[in-house]
From TrEMBL:
Native organism taxonomy: Bacteria, Pseudomonadati, Bacteroidota, Flavobacteriia, Flavobacteriales
Occurrences of domain Glycosyl transferase family (ranges): 160-317
Top-level taxon: Bacteria
Alphabetically ordered keywords of this record: Transferase
Cross-referenced InterPro entries: Glyco_trans_1, Glycosyltransferase_grp1
Gene3D superfamilies named among the record's database cross-references: Glycogen Phosphorylase B
Annotated organism of origin: Nonlabens ulvanivorans
GO molecular function, one term: glycosyltransferase activity
Keyword DNA-binding: no
Protein name: Glycosyl transferase
Amino acid sequence: MKNILYIGNKLAGKGRTATTIDILGPLLQKEGFKLRYASSVKNTNARLLHMMRLTFLSRNWAHYVLIDTYSTRNFWYAITIGRLCKSLKIKYIPILHGGNLPDRLSKNPKAIQAFINNAHTVVSPSDYLIDAFAKADFKQLIKIPNHIDLNKYSFKLRSEIQPRLLWVRSFADIYNPEMALEVLDLISENYPNAKLCMVGPDKDGSMKKCISIAAQKNLSVEFTGLLDKEDWISLSKNYDLFINTSNFDNLPVSVIEAMALGLPVISTNVGGIPFLIKNGENGFLTPPFKAVEMANHINELLENNQLVTGVAQNARTTAKNFNWDKVKGLWLQLFEG
C-alpha cells in the first residue's frame, strides 16, 4: 500500500466543521494506506508553515500528496504546497472543493494553470467543476464523488410534515444564512408555528448578525452552534424540511446527508447542486437570494404530502450513489492503478 501525505484544514477537533481531510483520511487508512496529515494548527500562518515543513520532511516517504483545494484564502495554501511538491518531485493530487474555483480561472489564471498542469491528476467530486475546467481546456480532471456511510443515515419517511426547517452549514457570508431567516419570515405569514434550527459554527460573525435579526423579527430560531455529526443527525428527526442557501457551492455533503435522511431539500441552484438535485424530482432549486421562491416551494410541499413522499424517496435513491462502498473503488484505482 502507498504512503499518502494529506494536506488540508484538519480542524474538526478545534471547534470547526469536519472537512474532507477528517473524513476521507481515516477511511483510506482503513483500506491499508499509511497517512500523514497537515495541518491541525489553528493559526493560519503557522498552519501553512506546518504544511510546508511536513511536505519537505515527507519528500522521500510520500508516494502521493493529496491537497484539499478551496476557492477562498485557503486556495493559496494549495498553490504553495503544489509548487513545493513540484520542486521536490512529489506526485500531488488536488481535490477540488471550492464552489467558486471557476472564478479563480479568470482572477489567477497563471497560478491555477501551473497548479493543475503540474499535478499527477486532479480529482473533482462533481461534474460542475469538471465542466468548468474543461471549458478552460483542462482535461485531466477525474470525478470521485463526495461520500457518506449510508448505514449511519436512517431514512425517515415523513407522511405528514410541519413547517420545521433545518439548516446545517458554517455561518459565513458565502453560505448566506440570512436568507434562511428571510424564508422563515415568509413561511410564518401562513404558518405562525414555523420554526428554524440553524446548525454550525460561526466563521465570520454572521451568526451574531442572524441572532440579532431573529430577535428583531421575533422569529422562532434555534442556534445550536457546531454539533457532532451524530448529534445533528439525531436532531434532524425533529425537523421536516432542509434548506440550503449558499451563494457558492460545489457538492455539499450536508445536502447529500439530508437526502439520505429523508428530508426534502430546497436549495439554491449554485455550483454543483443542479448536478445533484433535479428540480421537482428529488428536491427543489431556487436562484440565490430568492427567498420568496424558496418559500413558495416550501409552501407547495406543506400542502402536498404525496409530493413530499415522492421527493424524499427519490432523494434517498440519489444518496445511495454516494455510499462509501461505491466510491472507495475509485480511490483504490487512483492510487494503485
